[in-house]
Amino acid sequence: MMGPNHEFYNRRTRSTRFNAAVIMSTSWSCLDCLRLILVTSCLVAFCWELPSGVEAEDSFCQALTPSPTLTQFVDKLPIPYQIPVNTTEISIGAWKIKQKLHRDLPPTTLYAYGESQETARFPGPTFEATLDVKARIHWENHIPDNKHFLPVDTSINWAHPKHGGVPTVVHLHGAETESIYDGHPDAWWTPKGEHGYTYVTQHYSYPNSQRPALLWYHDHVVGITRLNVLAGLAGLYFVRSPKDKLTKLFPYGEYEIPFVLRDLQFWANGSINFPNIGDNATIHPTWCPEYFGDTILVNGKAWPYLEVYPRVYRLRLLNAANARFFNLSLSEPSLRFHKIGTDGGYLETKPQILKSLLVAPAERLDLLIDFSKLKPGDVVYVNNSAPAPFPDGTDSFSPPQTRSVLKFQVTAWPNSRQARGRPSNSDLRNALQYVESARTVQKIKYTNALHRYLRLQEFDDANGNPIVSLIENRTWRDPVVDFPREGAVEVWEWINTTPDAHPIHVHLIQFKVLNLQPFDENGYLNGSCNIEVGFSKPGTCFTGPPLPPKIYHTGFKDTAIVWPNFVTRYGIRFQTSDGRRFPFDPTLGPGYVFHCHILDHEDNDMMRPYKLIH
Ligand SMILES: *[C@@H]1O[C@H](CO)[C@@H](O)[C@H](O)[C@H]1NC(C)=O
Ligand SMILES: *[C@@H]1O[C@H](CO)[C@@H](O)[C@H](O)[C@H]1NC(C)=O
Ligand SMILES: *[C@@H]1O[C@H](CO)[C@@H](O)[C@H](O)[C@H]1NC(C)=O
Ligand SMILES: *[C@@H]1O[C@H](CO)[C@@H](O)[C@H](O)[C@H]1NC(C)=O
Ligand SMILES: *[C@@H]1O[C@H](CO)[C@@H](O)[C@H](O)[C@H]1NC(C)=O
Ligand SMILES: *[C@@H]1O[C@H](CO)[C@@H](O)[C@H](O)[C@H]1NC(C)=O
Ligand SMILES: *[C@@H]1O[C@H](CO)[C@@H](O)[C@H](O)[C@H]1NC(C)=O
Ligand SMILES: [Cu+2]
Predict the structure, then answer these.
(1) β-strand pairing of 90-99 with 135-141
(2) Ligand 7, atom nearest to 528 Cα
(3) Distance (Å, rounded) from C-alpha 113 to C-alpha 96?
(4) Which residues form a coiled coil (predicted)?
């Protein structure tokens, strides 16, 4: 449940960033004015005369103007509509839309997925795929803008379409799929028909031959993923096992609730407030190391409520935020989260009974909550206690309102349903027993595994502002150096020398977190000790033994939290998550990628390509 022992790591200060944020976010101050003068060279007199807020079109990295105050829990939780997917191809577009994200907020401009502009929403439609039944989707781009409505930073590697337009490409996160359908960052397309150099097709096909799980689809264009996903290009995708459907042991239909979490910041007119002036605008005009919004949304509504009957519910949770981690808890002390699955499907261990849940960007959780002992009229809040950035942030980016997420409102059964629909209270026990009995623990041998060492490193400017974070000191554009063999078992050791926890995602496969081990960061970086010495000899930088994976690391994962000042080891088998050969040739096409899922990091080179070989 707890993070690693804090004594193990060596905090670097973040004072520059936090001080600026505290000063800038309070109100229109002299400092704001000075910074505006510096950046936009407006006149002092002009600055002082304008009323507070109105002129603040410029938005400083990590010092955003607070959003308008919004009453919490006034909007009903929306449920994205479902579309079954199978071998009959359907067309899904990216559209420019306006959507109401809160009762009192004017409609917000978004880019979103849908079959038409009228039906496009954030989150996009929920796709319902069936195990081992191919799904065909034709992904289209109908975004009419010549220029993105969010600020593109051209100083970082990005798609750079010559004829303008907003490029898009779709990654089905967690899917075990051919690389031509994986949404490779350079395989983008624009409405004008221009595309990136690894583009092959927009007619995608997903085999759905993997452990049944909740996946999600989202944009993945090189250098603007953070903008396209923030703009709304994301949605859920279930791979369902027909067996699960038949047993009906788990709450389903209206009792299975998709729960897409994210944070955003707004201007009073409803527009998304995204920084257009970077920490160090000389180096990166608009790029900002992490985007944190002060408004928490679930399924595209700010602080919604959900009416629940006194029974068991299943929550399918995704953290779709750019950078915010959530540590969720329930205000009703008698309730627990029963965690039955994660990114790669059901747990292979017993369900976990938890009071709190740490969930990083892109991670998913499959949860049961039993409201059956509660009375009509009872309310239960879902609260959040994670600092931002995680784990060493202060309150600057987690103002009090970000501590609340959603309100469950317990309601009496309608008379009509009292008789038929009301399930017995033993539901939870049966469901949990089913998960336990259905588990097939896969024994994977790591003894002869090849080890890859992947150093995560942040580079700062002279004032301590992060400028870039790299993996093995290589950029996205450096050549591929990682060529795992199809079917091989490998251990990927993430050596995190930065102050942040990074949710590191590997495409194509589901992995297991094997362990994590603390090390001396200074010694490692100055070369006085070593880590990359193989399995037989222990590295000399370690300051303690390997620790077992944390509770949020268990199960099959495609994205996991890599702690600062620890080496986190992923055990990877380059096969399907259920231990079969891939039903396609994974060595073909542009290849796969691994990256940090803090999208602001990913876009600024914390992403690398990799390719499989036979
Ligand atoms: C999450 O919050 C709970 C309190 O609600 C706390 O006990 C727990 O340590 C936190 N988890 C992490 C990983 O910080
Ligand atoms: C909304 O307000 C912001 C801040 O004043 C401004 O920059 C933006 O252009 C406005 N958007 C619209 C659509 O009016
Ligand atoms: C296949 O998907 C289409 C489009 O969503 C749907 O209309 C149809 O019912 C599905 N067919 C099957 C056999 O599920
Ligand atoms: C949880 O959030 C609710 C609603 O904002 C608040 O009233 C309550 O005090 C919070 N509980 C905790 C433990 O923070
Ligand atoms: C930007 O970085 C350069 C190089 O480190 C540094 O000289 C300059 O002071 C930085 N500017 C700001 C505004 O921090
Ligand atoms: C990273 O690579 C650059 C050249 O691309 C080199 O100048 C620098 O010394 C390297 N830094 C580290 C820490 O390896
Ligand atoms: C390297 O780091 C170690 C451990 O922090 C420290 O003891 C040592 O003095 C450093 N050496 C140099 C050359 O900076
Ligand atoms: Cu990161």
Answers:
(1) parallel
(2) 1
(3) 9
(4) none
Beta bridge partners of 451: 491
86, 130, 132: residue to mutate for ligand 3 pocket, most atoms within 8 A of CB: 86
> Do the beta carbons of residue 322 and residue 360 sit within 8 Å?
no
- Look at ligand 7, atom 6, and give the residue with the nearest C-alpha: 523
What SS3 class is residue 397?
A: helix
In this structure, what are the phi and psi dihedrals at residue 27, rounded to the nearest 5 degrees?
-170, -175
16-36 burial code (b ≥16 CB/10 A, e <16): ebbebbebbbeebeeebbebb
The C-alpha angle 33, 39, 45, rounded to 5 degrees, equals 35
Instruction: State the helix-helix crossing angle for 30-40 and 15-26, rounded to 10 degrees.
Output: 110
Tell me the CA end-to-end span of the chain in Å, nearest whole number.
Answer: 40
Could you give the dihedral angle defined by the CA atoms of residues 542, 543, 548 and 554, in that order, rounded to the nearest 10 degrees? -70
How many Cβ atoms are within 10 Å of 417's Cβ, its own excluded? 10
The structure tokens 């009959």 sit at 88
CA of 5 to the centre of ligand 1 (A): 13
pLDDT tens readout for residues 156-197: 999 999 999 999 999 999 999 999 999 999 999 999 999 999
User: Which residue segments constitute the domains of the chain, with CATH numbers given?
Assistant: 253-263+293-438 (2.60.40.420), 450-610 (2.60.40.420)
Q: List the structure tokens of 7.
A: 């004594």
Q: What is the mean pLDDT of the chain?
A: 89
Amino acid at 290: E
Element at 381 (helix H, strand E):
strand 379-384
Query: CA distances (Å), 58 to each of 126, 228, 267, in order?
Result: 36, 20, 11
Contact 464 CB / ligand 3 (< 6 Å): no
Any atom of ligand 3 within 6 Å of the Cβ of 37: no
Q: Which residues, 6 or more positions from 525, have their beta carbon under 8 angstroms from its beta carbon?
A: 497
Measured distance CA(517)–CA(560) in Å, rounded: 15
Residues near 599 by Cβ (< 8 Å), separated by ≥ 6?
Answer: 225, 226, 229, 230, 291, 322, 323, 361
Using alpha carbons, select from 205, 409, 446, 449 the residue that is nearest to residue 313: 409
Q: For residue 340, give Cα distances in angstroms to 367, 405, 429.
A: 6, 22, 12
| pLDDT tens-digit readout, 274-308 | 999 999 999 999 999 999 999 999 999 999 999 99
Instruction: DSSP letter for 19, please.
Output: H
Residue 99, both tokens = 């959507």
The pLDDT of residue 53 is 43
Q: CA–CA distance from 468 to each of 226, 417, 457, 497 (Å)?
A: 15, 57, 8, 13
Please state, in angstroms and rounded to a whole number, the distance separating the CA atoms of residues 104 and 94: 26
In this predicted model, what pLDDT tens digit does every residue of 345-395 receive, in sequence order? 999 888 899 999 999 999 999 999 999 899 999 999 999 999 999 999 988
